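Pipeline run #58 for the internal structure catalog. This entry was flagged by the ingest filter as a single-chain record with no existing model, so it goes straight to prediction. Upstream metadata was stripped on purpose; only the residue string is passed forward. Reviewer on rotation: M.T. Logging verbosity set to normal.
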Amino acid sequence: MDPVSNIGPIRGLEEIPGASDVGRADSGSGFTDALKEAVQTVDELQHESEASQLAFAREEDIDLHDVLIKVEEAEIAFKTMMQIRNKLVEAYQEVMRMGS
């Protein structure tokens, strides 16, 4: 049995805005829109994380557990965005090498 054929679709991909348009030749600027939305989402998560940290520091009614969850969500989103950026740069560099 081929182990590659056992790999199913990636779960959760449908939750990413514009992800269904990525890779479609006829989608026009679907990839660009998806990338912009992803950057906006990361930015929003960063702002929410900062706001919850400030609220906790001001001793407002916010649970430390919720603050830590928001910080971790923002960190994971940022690290994911950086990995995507790195892969895009690598792909661009590879295309440029093929053209030389």
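catalog note: Residues 17-99 form one domain.
catalog note: Residues 64-99 form the longest helix (36 residues).
status: ready for reviewer M.T.
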